[in-house]
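User: Show me a protein chain along with its predicted structure.
Assistant: Here is one chain, sequence first, then C-alpha cells.
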Amino acid sequence: MNKTNPSTLCIIPARGSNDQVSSLNLRELNGKPLIQYTIEAAKKTTLIDVIMVSTEDQFIADLAKLFGATVPFLRPKELTVSSIKKVVQHTLQNIQGSFDLVIVLWPNCPFRQPKDIDSIIEHYISHKFDFVISMIEDEDWIWVDENGFFKCISRPNENLTQRSLYRGAGGMEVGFSNNYLAKDLYSSQVGSFLIDRHSAITIHSLYDLLIAERLIRLPRSMLNTLGVTT
C-alpha cells in the first residue's frame, strides 16, 4: 500500500428508494439530477482515480454511466438498507483490481466542491486516523433526556461540556480499504474534517430541495459570506 500517494476509489452509494422522498437521487435541482452534482465534483478532483456508483437501481446505474461514473454491477437489494461499511465491503470484494484508499461521497450534497474532496483526502493521508468524516461544529442548543427531564449540555458561546460538539455534514467519509474490510467506524480512531456550512448542505426532503433551488442561483461569493455571518 502506498500511504503517501494512494490509489483512490470514490464510491457513491445511490439507492433508488428513499424513506422521505421517492427517487431522491434523481430529483432535479436547477435542471440536473441530484446525483449528477456529486459525480461532476468527483470528476474535477485531482486525487480520485476511479468513480464508482453503488446502486441496486438500473435507471440510476444507466444515468451514472452517462455522467461519467462506472457501475460494474448492480448491488443486492438488501444492501439498500445496510450500513455504508457493508456497501463499501461489497464493492471492494466484487471489483477487479484493488485500491489503497476509499472515499465515500453521498449523492445528496450538491454544494460540495472538488477542493473539499481533495482536501479531506489530503487531511486523511497526513494524519493517523482510521477514518475521517466531514463535519461542522454544532452551534445549536443541545438538550439530552435524563429520565424524562431535559438537561442542556451545549449553548452557543457557552461550552457546558468543556468540549466542542460536532455533527457529520457534507457527506464525505475516507478510509484505507483495509480499514473498511477489518474495522468498525464507531469503535475506531475517527478524525474530523471541518467543512463550510454551505458546502455541507444535505438534501433530505422536498423542503430541502426547494431551499437548494433558491441557493444554487446565488453567486458563490455571496453564499460564502452568508455561511460565515449567519
